Q: What sequence folds into this?
C-alpha cells in the first residue's frame, strides 16, 4: 500500500513535469536573464568579485548559498554552451541552448520539492496525502512563477517543507539546520525566523539547565556553522558589508512595480482618497513628488496626507503582527502546529513587509496546503486564499499568449481542489450504503459560504473589467488602473485570510 | 487526469487511489479532464508550426491562413477557381466547402483583430506575434467547441449502461490523444472539426438517432474528404440496421434524404452549374500528386521499395487498383455489419474501414493515421494493449514529420504523458478464448519491433543518413510501422468477427435461461 501511494506522488510529479516541459517556450521575465547573468558571474569571476560585479544591471543580490548553487549549475552550463557563462557575450543571450538549459535546471531542482512533500506526507492517510501532493506539486502559482516567469521557488520551498517535516517529527536540530540553509539561499524566508527561534528555544532547548544548555550550544553551533559556510569566505575577504548592502536594497520603494495585494494598497488608497476629499473641501494639499515604487529620495514622502512609511515601520509592524503567534508558540510548542505558524508568519510578512513582490504569496500558500487538509474550516479557507493568491499573480504573465495557460491553470486548480475537498468531507461508507439502498446520495459537507462565493465570483468580474472593459474604454490612459483594481480586490481576500489565520491560531 | 470509480460490482470494492477526483460523476470528470486537456493544447501551441519561417512556400499554417485570406476577400464562387486574385498553385483550397466556410468565419475574426494578417496578397507569409496567436486560438476554440462536446456526447452515450469504472480513464484517453494534439496544435490543422463531427455521428449511432448521424457525418465529409475513411462503416451499419426494419425502403429513404439535404445546404454555392461542381470536385481529388507522398507507412509506399508502382502502371489504372484494394480490404467488416449490425461491431467496423483506407487508398498522407487512431481511441477500453501499441506506432510513423516541424520536445512529452495516463489504471481485459497475443511468436515480434523503433529514434536524431540514400531512416521507420499496422489490421478484423460470434453465443445462452 505504501509503495502504491508513493507511486501516486511520483505520478503527479511526472505529469507536472510533462506540463513544465511543455511550458519551456513560454514567456520569460527579466528574471531569466538575471539568473543567466549569475551563472556567468559565478563561473567567470573569482569569489571575491561576485558581489562587486556590475557588468549587467542584474547584479547578484541573493545570499551566498544561492551563488554557490549557480556556480554548481554553471559547470554544466559551460558544457552545454560556453556562451551562457560568458560575462559579456552572454548578455541577453536567448538561444535555444540557454532557454532549454535554464528551464531544465528549474525542472530538475523541483526534485527537492518532491522530496519535501514526500517526507512531509509519509505518515498521512492516503486521501489527505494525495490532496497535499496535488496542491503542492500542481500549485498553479509555482507553475506560473517558476516555469513561465522563471525562478527557483519550488527548489527553495522544497527545503522549507523538508525543514517543517523534521520539526513535525520532533527532530528539531535538523529542522533548524535546514531552515538556516534556506535562509542562506534566499533571505526573504527570514520572516519566519522569529517563529523558528521561539519554537526551537522552547521546544528543543527548554529541558532543564544542563540538557537545555547543551542543546542551545548544539543548535547555536549548527546555525553558526551554516552561516559561516555561506558568509565565511566573504567575511574573510572583508566584503560582508557589500554582500549585506546587495541583499537588502532599501533604496527601493514601499511597493513593488506591480502592487502586491497587501495592507499598503489600502494605505495608499486611503491617502489618495483623503487628499482628494481635503482638496475638495478647500484645504491646500500638495501633490507628492516621490512615487511608491521609486524609493526614498531625501525627505520627500510619497504620501500627501498620511505619515511617511519607512522600512523600520514595516519591520515593527510585521513583528507586531507575528507576536500573537510567538506567544502561542512559547506557551505550548506543538510540532503539529508548526506549519500553521510558519504560514502565518509569511502571511504577515507579505501583508506588512517592505517592497513585497506578489510572488511572495507562494511562501504562505505552499505551507498552508499542508494545513488545509486538517479540518473542514481549513479547507474552506485554503480554497479561497489559494485562488486569490494565484489570481493576484496574473499580472506577472501579461502577454496574451500565456493568457489561456494562466486561466486554465487556475480553473483546473480550483476544480481539483473542489473535487478533492468534497471527497474528503463526503461520508464514504454512508455513500456506499445509500447507493445500495438506492436512496439519495448524501451531499458533501464541503460547501463554500455565500460571502466567499460571491467574493470569488467577483474575481471573474474584476478580471473582465480590468482586462477588457478598462483598456477598451480608457485606452492607454490610466494604465495603472487594471493593476490597482486587481491588487485592491485581492488584498481584501488576503487580509481576510490573515485575520482568519490569526483567529485560528488564537483559539 | 485519469480517475477510476468504485468498481463495477459495487460490493466490497476497495476504494482506489483515484476515486476522490471522479466521485462527482461523468460530466464533472469530463469537465476536469477537459480543462487539463485544454491546458496541454495551449502549451503545445507555443511550439513552432509546420513551415514556420521558411519562405517561399511555408507550410500547413500558411495554407490555412491563405484560405482565410482568400475566403474573406473573394466571393464564394471564386474560392476554388484559378484567377488573377486566386493563384491555386500557391496553397489553393483543396478541402470541401465546410472547410472554406470555417476559414471564412475564422478569417473574419482575424480581420477584426488584425487586418494585416488576412489582407489579399500582402499577407502572404504573415507571421506576426498576434497573427500567429489568433490562428492558434482559432484551433483551440474549434477543438473546445466541436471536438470536446462531441466527445462528451460519445462518453455519455457509450457509458450509459456501463459500470462507472474506467469512464474517466477513457475520457482522458480520448481528450489527451497525443496524435491529434500534435497535428492540430503543433503542426497546425483543423482535424478536430471533422473528427469531432465524426465522433458526434458515432455517438448518434450509439443512441439510435440515425438522421442525426447522417447529418453529422455528411458535415464531417464536407469538412475533410478524408472522413470518407469511415464511410464504409457508417454505410454498412446503417444499411444493416435498416434492412432489419419493417419498412427497409422507407427508413433508407429517410436517411438518404437527410444526407442529400445536408449536402445541398453545404454545397449550395457550387450547385448552380455542373462546371462549378466539377471544379470543386477536381480540387478535392488531386490525383496528379501520385499514389503516395513522402514516406507514409501504407501498402503502396512500402511495397514501392520492391515494386515500382508508379513506373509499372499509369495513374488512372493505379486509381482503380487502389480503389479495388481498399474496397476488398474493408469488405469483411462491411459484410459483418450488414448481416449483424451491433454497436460494438460498428466501432470495430470504423477501425477496420479506416485502417483499410489508410493502407490501400490513393494519396494517403502520414497524418491520415489520425482516422484509424481515433476509431481505436473509442475502443480503448476493449483493446487496451493493442491501443497502447497503436498509439506508439501511430506517433512513430509521424516522427520524421514532427521532427521537421521542430516538435521533438512535445512529441516526447506527450508520449510520456500518454504513458503515464495509460498506466495510471489499467483496464482489466477479459481474456478471449483465442487471441493473437497468445501466440508466442507475436509477442516476440512485437518486442523486436519495439526495440528496433527505439534504436531508430536515436539513429534518426543523431546519425546523418548515407549520401546515396538520404531518406534511408524514413524508409526504415515506414517499413516498421507498416508491418505493425498490417498485424493490427488483421487482429481487428479477426476481433470484429470473433466478437460477434461470442456475442451471439451469449445471446443464445440468455434465451435458454
A:
Amino acid at each position: 500500500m505504501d509503495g502504491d501511494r508513493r507511486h501516486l506522488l511520483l505520478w503527479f510529479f511526472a505529469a507536472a513535469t510533462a506540463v513544465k516541459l511543455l511550458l519551456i517556450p513560454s514567456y520569460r521575465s527579466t528574471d531569466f536573464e538575471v539568473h543567466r547573468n549569475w551563472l556567468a558571474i559565478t563561473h567567470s569571476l573569482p569569489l571575491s568579485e561576485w558581489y562587486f560585479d556590475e557588468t549587467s544591471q542584474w547584479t547578484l543580490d541573493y545570499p551566498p548559498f544561492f551563488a554557490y548553487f549557480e556556480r554548481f549549475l554553471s559547470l554544466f552550463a559551460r558544457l552545454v554552451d560556453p556562451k551562457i557563462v560568458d560575462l559579456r557575450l552572454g548578455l541577453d543571450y536567448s538561444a535555444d541552448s540557454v532557454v532549454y538549459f535554464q528551464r531544465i535546471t528549474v525542472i530538475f531542482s523541483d526534485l527537492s520539492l518532491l522530496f519535501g512533500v514526500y517526507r512531509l506526507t509519509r505518515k498521512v492517510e492516503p486521501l489527505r496525502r494525495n490532496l497535499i501532493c496535488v496542491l503542492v506539486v500542481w500549485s498553479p502559482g509555482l507553475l506560473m512563477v517558476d516555469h513561465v516567469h522563471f525562478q527557483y521557488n519550488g527548489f527553495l520551498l522544497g527545503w522549507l517543507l523538508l525543514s517543517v517535516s523534521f520539526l513535525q517529527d520532533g527532530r528539531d536540530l535538523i529542522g533548524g539546520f535546514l531552515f538556516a540553509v534556506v535562509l542562506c539561499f534566499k533571505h526573504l524566508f527570514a520572516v519566519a525566523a522569529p517563529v523558528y527561534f521561539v519554537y526551537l528555544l522552547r521546544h528543543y532547548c527548554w529541558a532543564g539547565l544542563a540538557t537545555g544548555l547543551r542543546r542551545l550550544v548544539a543548535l547555536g553551533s549548527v546555525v553558526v556553522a551554516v552561516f559561516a559556510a555561506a558568509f565565511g569566505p566573504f567575511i574573510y575577504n572583508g566584503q560582508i558589508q557589500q554582500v549585506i548592502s546587495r541583499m537588502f536594497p532599501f533604496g527601493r520603494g514601499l511597493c513593488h512595480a506591480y502592487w502586491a495585494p497587501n495592507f499598503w494598497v489600502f494605505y495608499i488608497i486611503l491617502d489618495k482618497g483623503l487628499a482628494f476629499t481635503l482638496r475638495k473641501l478647500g484645504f491646500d494639499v500638495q501633490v507628492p513628488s516621490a512615487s511608491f515604487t521609486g524609493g526614498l529620495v531625501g525627505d520627500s514622502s510619497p504620501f500627501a496626507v498620511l505619515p511617511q512609511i519607512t522600512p523600520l515601520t514595516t519591520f515593527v509592524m510585521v513583528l507586531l503582527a507575528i507576536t500573537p503567534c510567538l506567544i502561542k508558540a512559547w506557551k505550548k510548542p506543538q510540532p503539529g502546529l508548526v506549519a500553521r505558524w510558519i504560514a502565518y508568519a509569511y502571511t504577515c510578512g507579505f501583508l506588512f513587509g517592505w517592497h513585497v513582490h506578489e510572488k511572495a504569496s507562494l511562501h504562505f500558500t505552499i505551507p498552508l496546503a499542508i494545513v488545509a487538509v486538517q479540518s473542514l474550516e481549513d479547507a474552506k479557507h485554503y480554497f479561497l486564499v489559494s485562488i486569490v493568491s494565484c489570481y493576484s499573480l496574473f499580472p506577472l504573465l501579461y502577454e496574451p499568449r500565456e493568457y489561456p495557460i494562466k486561466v486554465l491553470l487556475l480553473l483546473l486548480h480550483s476544480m481539483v481542489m473542489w473535487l478533492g475537498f468534497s471527497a474528503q468531507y463526503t461520508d464514504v461508507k454512508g455513500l456506499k450504503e445509500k447507493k445500495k439502498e438506492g436512496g439519495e446520495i448524501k451531499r458533501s459537507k464541503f460547501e463554500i459560504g455565500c460571502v466567499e462565493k460571491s467574493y470569488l465570483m467577483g474575481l471573474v468580474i474584476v478580471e473582465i473589467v480590468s482586462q477588457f472593459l478598462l483598456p477598451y474604454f480608457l485606452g492607454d490612459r490610466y494604465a495603472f488602473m487594471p493593476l490597482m483594481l486587481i491588487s485592491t480586490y485581492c488584498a481584501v481576500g488576503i487580509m481576510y485570510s490573515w485575520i482568519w489565520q490569526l483567529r485560528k491560531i488564537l483559539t | 487526469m485519469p480517475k477510476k470509480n468504485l468498481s463495477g460490482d459495487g460490493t466490497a470494492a476497495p476504494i482506489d487511489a483515484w476515486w476522490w477526483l471522479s466521485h462527482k460523476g461523468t460530466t464533472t470528470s469530463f469537465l476536469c479532464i477537459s480543462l487539463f486537456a485544454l491546458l496541454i493544447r495551449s502549451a503545445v501551441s507555443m511550439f513552432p508550426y509546420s513551415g514556420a519561417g521558411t519562405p517561399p512556400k511555408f507550410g500547413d499554417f500558411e495554407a490555412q491562413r491563405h484560405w482565410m485570406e482568400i475566403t474573406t476577400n473573394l466571393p464564394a464562387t471564386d474560392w476554388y477557381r484559378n484567377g488573377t486574385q486566386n493563384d491555386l498553385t500557391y496553397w489553393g483550397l483543396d478541402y470541401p466547402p465546410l472547410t472554406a466556410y470555417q476559414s471564412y468565419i475564422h478569417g473574419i475574426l482575424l480581420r477584426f483583430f488584425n487586418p494585416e494578417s488576412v489582407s489579399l496578397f500582402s499577407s502572404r507569409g504573415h507571421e506576426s506575434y498576434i497573427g500567429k496567436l489568433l490562428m492558434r486560438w482559432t484551433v483551440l476554440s474549434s477543438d473546445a467547441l466541436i471536438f470536446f462536446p462531441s466527445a462528451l456526447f460519445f462518453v455519455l452515450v457509450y457509458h450509459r449502461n456501463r459500470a462507472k469504472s474506467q469512464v474517466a480513464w477513457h475520457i482522458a484517453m480520448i481528450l489527451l490523444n497525443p496524435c491529434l494534439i500534435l497535428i492540430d496544435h503543433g503542426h497546425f490543422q483543423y482535424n478536430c472539426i471533422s473528427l469531432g463531427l465524426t465522433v458526434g455521428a458515432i455517438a448518434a449511432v450509439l443512441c439510435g438517432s440515425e438522421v442525426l448521424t447522417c447529418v453529422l457525418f455528411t458535415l464531417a465529409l464536407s469538412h475533410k474528404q478524408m472522413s470518407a475513411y469511415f464511410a464504409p462503416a457508417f454505410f454498412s451499419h446503417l444499411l444493416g440496421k435498416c434492412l432489419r426494419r419493417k419498412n427497409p425502403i422507407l427508413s433508407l429513404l429517410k436517411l438518404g434524404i437527410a444526407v442529400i439535404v445536408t449536402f445541398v445546404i453545404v454545397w449550395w454555392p457550387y450547385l448552380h452549374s455542373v462546371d462549378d461542381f466539377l471544379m470543386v470536385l477536381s480540387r478535392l481529388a488531386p490525383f496528379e500528386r501520385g499514389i503516395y507522398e513522402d514516406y507514409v507507412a501504407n501498402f503502396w509506399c512500402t511495397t514501392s521499395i520492391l515494386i515500382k508502382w508508379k513506373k509499372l502502371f499509369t495513374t488512372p489504372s493505379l486509381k482503380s487498383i487502389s480503389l479495388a484494394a481498399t474496397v476488398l480490404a474493408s469488405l469483411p467488416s462491411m459484410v459483418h455489419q450488414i448481416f449483424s449490425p451491433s454497436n460494438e461491431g460498428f466501432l470495430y467496423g470504423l477501425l477496420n474501414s479506416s485502417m483499410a483506407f489508410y493502407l490501400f487508398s490513393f494519396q494517403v498522407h502520414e497524418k491520415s493515421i489520425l482516422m484509424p487512431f481515433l476509431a481505436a481511441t473509442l475502443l480503448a477500453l476493449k483493446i487496451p494493449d493493442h491501443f497502447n501499441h497503436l498509439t506508439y506506432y501511430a506517433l512513430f510513423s509521424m516522427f520524421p514529420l514532427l521532427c521537421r516541424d521542430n516538435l521533438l520536445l512535445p512529441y516526447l512529452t506527450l508520449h510520456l504523458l500518454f504513458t503515464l495516463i495509460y498506466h495510471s489504471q489499467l483496464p482489466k481485459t477479459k481474456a478471449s478464448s483465442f487471441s493473437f497475443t497468445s501466440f508466442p511468436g507475436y509477442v516476440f515480434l512485437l518486442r523486436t519491433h519495439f526495440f528496433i523503433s527505439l534504436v531508430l529514434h536515436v539513429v534518426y536524431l543523431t546519425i546523418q543518413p548515407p549520401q546515396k540514400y538520404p531518406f534511408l531512416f524514413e524508409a526504415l521507420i515506414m517499413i516498421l510501422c507498416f508491418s505493425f499496422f498490417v498485424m493490427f489490421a488483421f487482429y481487428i478484423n479477426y476481433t470484429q468477427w470473433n466478437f460477434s460470434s461470442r456475442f451471439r453465443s451469449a445471446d443464445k445462452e440468455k434465451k435458454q435461461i
